[in-house]
Every structure is written in C-alpha cells, then in structure tokens.
Amino acid sequence: MLKGIVLSNISNLYKVEVNDKIYDCAARGKIKNEAISPVAGDLVSIEVQDEEKNVGVINNICERKNYIKRPKMANLSQIILVASMKMPKPDLLLLDKQLVYAEYMSINPIICLNKIDLENTERIDEIYNLYKSIGYKVIKTNAKNGIGIDELKECLENNITAFSGNSGVGKSTLINNLIGEQITEEGNISKKNKRGKNTTTQVNLYKINQNSYIADTPGFSTFDVFEIEKNDLAKYFIEFRKYLDKCEYVDCSHIKEEKCGIKHAIQEGKISKERYERYCQIYETIKNKKKEY
Known about the structure:
By secondary structure, this protein is of the alpha/beta class. It has helices at 29-33, 92-104, 121-134, 149-156, 171-179, 261-267, 273-291, and strands spanning 2-10, 13-18, 21-27, 43-50, 55-61, 67-68, 73-74, 78-84, 108-114, 137-140, 160-164, 204-209, 212-216.
C-alpha cells in the first residue's frame, strides 16, 4: 500500500501524487459507504492496479487536520488572501470575512495586496499598515511584473496553500508566476462593471517542491462564515481578544451594550473603527441568516 496526496477530483476520478508520480484513482466502495469522499489535499492510501498505466484505487483517507466544505479541500495549512488595489477595488468586508474564517479554521492567513501599480501609495499604505498593525503578514505585489513574488515564494515552503479572493484580483497570475508555468487560466475583467469573471471551476493542487503545494480554488470568495456562532465572532477578530474580558456582560455582543471593552478600546484608538464597523456588518449577517432556519 502506498501513501500519497490527492491533487484533484474530476467526476470521481482522483489524481494522486505518490513520490513524484501521479496515479489516476477511483475510490474504494467502502469509503463511499462511510459517507466520506476524498478531496484535494487529502492524504490517502492507494493500491496500484496497473503500474504502466498509472492506475490505482484509494483504499483509505488519513485523518484530516481540517476540512473546508466549499470548495472542498483538506489539510490546508495556509491561505493567501488576495485583494486587488483596483479593478476590482479592494473589498475589505470580504477580506475581514476571510480572515475570520481562517482564524475559525486555525489556518494561517497571509494578506496579499495585488495590482499596487494601479493605486496611489497613500491608499496602499493605509490598508497595509492597518492589517500589519493587527499582526497579520501583508505582502505588496504586482503579479504582472513579478513584484513581491519572491516574498510570496518564501511563504510557500512546507505548506499546502490556497489562494482566495474575488475573481479578477490576480490569483491565477500570481500562481502562474509562482509555478513558472501558464497552468491556470487568467480571468478577464468586464469593462462594463470592472468585476472579475470566475474562470476556475475546480480545486487543483500544484506541487512546488517537496512538501509544498499551492491550490487554485473556485468559490473561496464566498467563505461560509455562517458556520460561526454570532456570539463567538468577536474572538476571531484577533485585535479584539485582549479586550473581551473588559466587557460588563459575559454574553456582550459589542454592539448595543454600553459598558463594552471593545467599544472602549475603539474610543481610545486601540481598535480600528472601520474594522469594528465591518465586525458589526458580519455579526448582523450571521444573526439574520440564523433567523432563517
């Protein structure tokens, strides 16, 4: 029995990489009976059925470190959150949702500010300094010209890394630069609405070097923060954490309450008012969604 990593799944045919060799594998029936299917990033045991044709069958899925439902992926150690400075403009509400989800899943987030050639330095530094001061690693890039690519490469070592962000922010261009090949299809920006057209339709894992993989993924711009309970949301805003015990009420929502440690920290300039306002938006979104069920 050999052990490998699932690189992709197309119509229940899995590409599994074992010692730099890729096998086309189906999943053994017992796996389906256990109501679990292999996904990109899974570590699996396979039995080779035809060595010449590189055909095998997956017998077992190893225990997962984490599992993301949409899009389906396992064992991510890191997410690079890509925001473009223009075309499309930076969506900081989405970025904060992504950061919250990464914290919730215990996956290390890195923020990538792409297309820095299209925006003035003052605006770039404003966003850069905000997230840097909170404690996040932030990298400035211009994917078209290769700026910041070397710094990104250093972050990939010994990680399974997913790239996330709205269509059109430059994820595919970044990945192509990192891999050095034109593997992913680059999206085009609609001139009419300046928003991206989604081109990636499935999760594909690409090997950079030993124990280092990156994924081009669809749908990560729609992180399901509804997995998070509204009363737990504040602890996933990492700069809020040290003020949570300063609230008068244990179940403080940090929205309507007066004697709130978070609100007091905002008044003292210790927490960004803009980040807090986005917290309130996400809180209300989760609260209203829960009412539907």
